[in-house]
Amino acid sequence: MIDQILQLRSQYLSTAQIAKQLGLSVGQVKYQLQKARHASSQERAAAIGQEEPTRQEAPCMTQADAGQERRGREWQLPDFYGENVIRLMVQSPTVLYVYWEITWPRMRMVASYLQTDYREVQKGIRLYDVTDRYFDGGNAHGWRDFLVGEDAHSWYLPEVQPGRTYIADFGLFHQGRFCPILRSEPAATPRSWPAAWGEPLIEPVTDTGRPAWFEHFSYSFYTK
Amino acid sequence: MEQGYLSLVLHAHLPYVRHPERDDRLEERWVYEAMLESYIPLLMVFDKLLADGIDYRLTMSVSPTLLTMLDDPLIQERFMSYLANLTELSVKEVKRTAGSPAERRLALMYLERFREIAVYCARHHYRLVPVLRRLHEAGRLELITCAATHAYLPFLMTEEAVRAQIQTAVMTHQEILGFRPQGIWLPECAYAPGVDRLLAEAGLRFFFVENHAVEHATPIPRRGLYAPLLTAHGVAAFARDPACSRQVWSSEVGYPGDYDYREFYRDIGYDLDVDYLAPHLHPSGIRIHTGLKYHRITGKGEQKDWYNPERARDKAAQHASHFLASRVRQIGAVARQLDRKPVIVAPYDAELFGHWWYEGPLFLDFLCRRIAAEAPGLRMISPSDYLREYPENDRARLPFSSWGRSGYGEVWLNGKNEWIYRHLHRAEREMVELVQTHPAPTPLQERVLKQAARELMLAQSSDWAFIMDNQTMVDYAVGRTHDHLTRFRQLSGWLRTGETDPAALTAMEQENQIFPNLLPKFYLPKQAHKVNVSHSVADLSSRGESPTRVLMLCWEYPPKTVGGLAKAVYDLARHLAKENVEVHVLTSALHAAYEEERAEGIFVRRVPTFQPGEETAFLDWVFQLNLAMMDEVERLMQQGIRFDLLHAHDWLVGFAALEAKRRFGLPLIATIHATEHGRNQGIHTPLQQRIHQVERELAREAERVIVCSRYMAGEVQRLFELPGENISVIPNGIERPAPPPREEVEALRRRLGLEGRVIYFVGRLVREKGVHLLLEAVPAILAKHPDVTVVVAGTGPMQDELQALAAASGISGRVRFLGFVDDDTRNALFCLADLAVFPSLYEPFGIVALEAMAYRTPLLVADTGGLAEIVRHGENGLTMYAGDRNSLADQAIWLLDHPHAGMVLAERAYAELTERYDWNRLAQDTLEQYRKLVPQLVVW
What we know:
The complex is a heterodimer of chains A (224) and B (940). Chain A has 224 residues and is an alpha+beta fold. Helices cover 21% and strands 24% of the residues of chain A. Chain A folds into two domains: 2-41 and 54-69, no CATH class; 85-188, Immunoglobulins (Immunoglobulin-like, Sandwich). Chain A has helices at residues 2-10, 15-22, 26-39, 66-69, 104-114, and strands spanning 85-92, 95-101, 122-129, 142-148, 154-157, 165-174, 177-183, 187-188. In chain A, strands 3, 4, 6, 7 and 8 form a five-stranded antiparallel β-sheet that branches. Chain A is globular and about 55 Å long. Chain B has four domains: 4-71 and 127-262 and 307-392, 7-stranded beta/alpha barrel (Alpha-Beta Barrel), CATH 3.20.110; 421-523, Up-down Bundle (immunoglobulin/albumin-binding domain-like); 533-729, Glycogen Phosphorylase B (Rossmann fold); 751-917, Glycogen Phosphorylase B (Rossmann fold, 3-Layer(aba) Sandwich). In chain B, 49% of the residues lie in helices and 11% in strands. Chain B is built from 35 helices and 23 strands. In chain B, a hairpin with a 5-residue loop joins strand 6 (229-230) and strand 7 (236-239). In chain B, helix 22 runs parallel beside helix 23. Chain B is elongated, with a radius of gyration of 41 Å. At the A-B interface, strand 1, strand 2, helix 5 and strand 7 of A face helix 1, helix 6, helix 7, helix 15 and helix 17 of B.
């Protein structure tokens, strides 16, 4: 069991994702991971500040799961901010990470449209490959769907292609249709091999006030 | 003469771990350990090299957090006690080891070392910053900066936050060291497209990337890793040389793992009796590294021999020679293929040298002396020097990359630390907003803004995510992230509510007093954002008494014109604006992009849907539009734009209208232009049923319903079971246009080849318009008036069917289907026609009838719906029995028979327009409805 969990963990799946894949509860996965962590706590880190003088005396101080980390501290960060947000991040050339928050008025609106209980609809991420396209919702090179758990607020999207640009929709799969309810900004995976011969030269840009057509950062928090 | 260059770069960084509240924080010891074992030994080496007249050149990045701590009297003072305590321990050790000469020798080595360091520090008053500056000024050390708190820049969300990190870094560097840095060490070597623009903006000329960033650059770099690449913004990227990294970093083949070198993990802090060590450990009695380590690595096993300083020293010398020889070979091999002198870039964490690799500073000492003495075709250089010699470099696009495990972001974004980004990104956006909403802060607000920026930046340190990934000291990293973000939220709350707690603020400032002069304006957006326009709106209306502000929702709005709705809403909005109502229209985007405009006093925002209409199930598309509208409403409300009421047009905006009403408690007026039931003469399909439901809900939830005719009032009341007093009739209006010039009309007649008299229909070709009745009546009309041509303008689903019908009746020659016509043609056709016929089966209003009246065209309409209310038979036009082709033929023939009577009817109709259908009057009527809901409405 723990080997399977660790193997999935090494693919950077979240606890919720692992639980779903192995048919376990989130709590079971966390318990297994904690056990494994105690076992491996012999290893030592090298860089400065990474020594761990407290380890022998207080092994429980090194728990990683947020729930454990929060122990002994009055946790004041909210779980939700009451805003509709989705953010797509690039972890590596082949792995994306997406987090989101849906406010309950939006859930209510969606539920009233679908005439169903929001909690009971299958949620998912539709990942569009929009490389070199001005995406209008219908002109992606292709897309992939990831079904996510009811309680999930983030997901890793593995096995994406390097050197491509992606946009993610969070939405509902309902009666054979995908009903998007939040759309991310684009995220570009880095190409993980050398450029092809004959790529055009890069023109200098002197205006630092204006971002290039595609850049990594949001130009403002109001861009959707 | 050298063949090539070596650029050694030391990156010195520690997170801000100053804890003024207590002097025994273990984390603060990171600074003292690094000072004792790395920074001071390195500076001593550099100083000595300088004194000995050795020609050497290194680059050192000192992160602004570290620089601030080194410059901090509290840290200096505490370091002094730390050093004194250690010296005391080593004195004790010399006594303790009296019986063991091998061990005693090492204890003495440390004692001597600590005294040496104490002398050096005393000479410099424990201030390392002036030493750094002196070495820089002597041209031996090029000092560069790093992001303010060592944030992993690609994982910040907004360019404003990246800018603040960079600008604050440059500012801090300048304040503490006295000059602007030429280059920057990007934290974790992490680069993403866009960072370069902000570096260029800050006047930074170079940075470093991991080698694969250059290997995967576009286009293929001609000089490989041996020359920098310029980004589009002209900032030079130097690539880390993998061979140099391997020789020093690798745990397998790296120098620091040599068996003769000092073993890091065997420390007397763990080996000796706790009671003996007590005064030198943490007050809680936790064992810690003291820094006194007596063993050499010896081998892979647990058994460790005593350390032998002479042997270690010889090894460092050998390794320096080996490193140098490898570089010379490397340069020799590359220089032949390159059109210029190659540069090898060897960057390392400064803390590697001395702390982890005890002999590291010695290695550097040997290396520099050997290069200077032997001049082996290689010279040390800094990136600035290199760019001075070779200002021209190839340009390339570099991909996202870092020097972390696997080369990208997985160290700083994985299951152990992913949770921080939701909070960090939110705080970033809040910070940008706070700065924008406080353009002229009071001194107190300014302090709050600055502290908020400090807390945000401190929370952004990549160290926290790194430590969480590393699974050591996780609690501290989680705590720091949590506490900075929590304080940020508190500060942000103070600014929002205007209730600051000055004592708590002062406490925060004292606890984290980094970046004393940072400028909150670094967070001000430089791009023209959507928000800017809206802010000007807010400014506009915050002046004086605010006018009535109405939010209109309508799925079509010019230039997007599908039916008559767009024009009707546009005209109403325009005339309401004339009455000093501030009208905001929300509608669907023409293209896939958001647009905002202000024209004729109307604020129009066009919002895109997730999917294009043509490719989506219609209802899904409508719902997406409603979601997008709701987002926009929320955004406007967030910006402080307050609406007095909501005016929704037709069911297509029903979801958003109802949601906005519920969420924000806005009074809702709905105009029902037509019903699904009426359009289809009943409800026949599930889709129609669904639309009917939405219509019903909208009509029932709205405080008032406006319809365009009494006919519609009856229909709506019956269908939706509404109380009659909630419904008002306001007809659509029309502006009397200038008739097109005669010659244009005649030109059109010639162009279309029309002879004789013309019967004109214009409208969508759908069954409810009754065009088939007109065609069916044509044979009878032709029988009496063979010179007549019927002109049908417009398109629609029934076009093919209607053309087939004309062909089957043998009247194709007398019926002209023009398809879609532009407005000019459409209007000219009214002038050209002898008779306009609108034989609708269902017509809520019948705006075309008003158009015919406006062009003084004699009019024949079916006596149905709104048409029957506009046209009174024999008074201002003729009517026919709805659905009756014979009645149509009879009336048409009568009019053709009596052209003069037709003219009289048309003149009377024309005169009626001003009286009943003038938009100014209709706008006032609408405003009257608004007042019924919001009695206190102010109109300027």
